[in-house]
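go over this record:
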Amino acid sequence: MQKISLDALAREHLERATAASTGRSAATVYGGHEHVLRQTVLALTAGTSLAEHESPGEATLLVLRGRVRLTSGDASWEGRSGDLLTIPEARHSLQAIEDAAVLLTVAKHG
């Protein structure tokens, strides 16, 4: 068993994102390519986006800190600390409305 502080990881990656020229920082906290389930902490500074991309499988986004906007086609959803967003299987993008850290959980398609 492994215990991880998501609060501490959110803080750490927000600091790294602020220092990075890309305005983002990420680390896989569970799983990876050899697993079906993968969980990644991702931090984005305000105004930073992840460009539109395909969904690798069923996925959710838990907002740990800040505010984000998830957009797919003409629809968009705003999430703030404590919100859980279900990521559509269609192409989508993510923007940080303010400095934000999220936990991305993906179950890859077989």
